[in-house]
Amino acid sequence: QVQLVESGGGLVQAGGSLRLSCAASGSIFRINDMGWYRQAPGKQRELATTISSSGSANYADSVKGRFTISRDNARNTVYLQMDSLKPEDTAVYYCNAVVVQKPGYTLTYWGQGTQVTVSS
What we know:
The chain is mainly beta.
């Protein structure tokens, strides 16, 4: 079993910044991709950004240039630096990790979600 624990959400004014963290713990052999998804009220969950184990990142067009994903493989932790926040960034942000628990056994895990609210 693997747990993903997120932290760092909150309320911020438009134009401000927040930094989210997500730490994975438990039965982990290796973590492949990690990422952040978000779900706004009344909308489907959408991909914000992902990062591979080697550090290659991908971003949704809506966050490109404003959000930066990074990870610390030694700590099994992924970060999301969010700058120039907009009210439309308001959502619950979920951490995601593709975890190899043993060779040939891979599962995807989700964090519990952290609320980010951007006021105008």
